[in-house]
Write a structure and sequence with these properties.
It comes from Trujillonella endophytica. Helices cover 60% and strands 2% of the residues. It has 311 residues and is mainly α. It has one domain (30-287).
Length: 311
């Protein structure tokens, strides 16, 4: 392991008090400095979520260990790279190597080495998952998140220094989140044509996976068709999210997107958990200690509440 990987701060990083370097408009969007504390929090969330994903969200991947090898139809990346055909040994080794490496990476140690290992192992886990005729699109942004986290280097939870490398990583994830929505709208029209928003896609989903919160919509087909048009329009306009800069606006954006996915889950029990984890990277996590301090100070200003002791 490189000595600088374990002890040196991520580069390039600058103090919050230093003026940002002048960039052209495009580069300014990509390299807008972000506090390293945000990377530290997002890194912990992403790596710990892998345990949730392997044991709950994609627990079915382990069943591929018992599938006949001739059923394996690797994705393009599986054809280009000499990846092994999934067997019980291969699936078990990848599963436990991914879990243990992710747990170690969540501690923040050797972020480049362990982070790269987590990305490669999770990529192989996804090749095993999606090489049997089913490919999910809710993994793209999460894979991008795992790919860019090791590029930042060392980051601590209370590190307020701003880093252009961190800014590039978060910009890449935001772009992946936006493209997931935009390309979903494009795919709907490409493969389903304009019959998709006027068809019975949502009605079929409600019939197959509906809950008591959505079954009543079957009596209002006009509403389901309107929702399908709304999905197409909102997904196509997702590129406008790239213009969101201010922290408050980004918080509102995350609340809206997570609320949308919760609504979909409540209606048809479909949830894109890895995608939602990638969405969480948009939040200004470095401001949580500051907001907590403000809440405590406001509480102690109330009558009858003793002031906090001076450390």
């Amino acid at each position: 392991m490189n000595r600088s990987d374990a002890s040196s701060p991520a580069a390039p990083a600058s103090s919050a008090a230093e003026p940002a370097r002048a960039f052209p408009l495009g580069a300014r969007w990509w390299f807008r400095p972000v506090p390293l504390a945000r990377i530290a929090v997002v890194r912990t969330i992403a790596y710990l979520f892998i345990w949730v994903d392997v044991w709950l969200t994609t627990a079915w991947v382990r069943a591929h260990a018992d599938v006949p090898p001739e059923w394996y139809a690797p994705l393009t990346i599986g054809e280009l790279l000499p990846l092994p055909t999934p067997t019980r040994t291969v699936v078990t080794v990848v599963q436990w190597a991914l879990l243990l490496t992710a747990l170690a990476a969540a501690t923040g140690r050797a972020p480049r080495l362990l982070g790269t290992a987590v990305f490669l192992l999770y990529l192989e886990w996804m090749v095993i998952a999606m090489s049997y005729g089913k490919v999910d699109h809710d993994r793209i942004a999460f894979l991008v998140l795992l790919a860019v986290l090791p590029t930042v280097g060392v980051a601590r939870w209370r590190d307020r220094r701003r880093s252009e490398a961190a800014g590039f990583a978060m910009a890449a994830v935001l772009l992946a989140v936006v493209l997931t929505y935009f390309l979903a709208a494009w795919a709907k029209i490409r493969f389903g044509g304009w019959d998709w928003p006027t068809g019975a896609t949502l009605a079929r989903a409600v019939i197959r996976r509906g809950t008591s919160l959505s079954e009543w919509t079957l009596d209002a087909p006009w509403l389901l068709e309107a929702l399908q048009w709304a999905m197409i329009v909102l997904e196509a306009l997702a590129v406008l999210l790239l213009l969101v800069w201010r922290d408050r606006a980004r918080v509102a954006l995350v609340v809206f997107l997570i609320g949308f996915h919760l609504m979909v889950y409540a209606g048809v029990t479909i949830v894109f958990l890895p995608h939602c984890v990638a969405i969480l990277s948009i939040l200004p996590w470095e401001r949580v200690p500051e907001l907590r301090g403000r809440l405590l100070a406001r509480r102690h200003r109330r009558p009858g509440v003793p002031a906090p002791a001076t450390p």
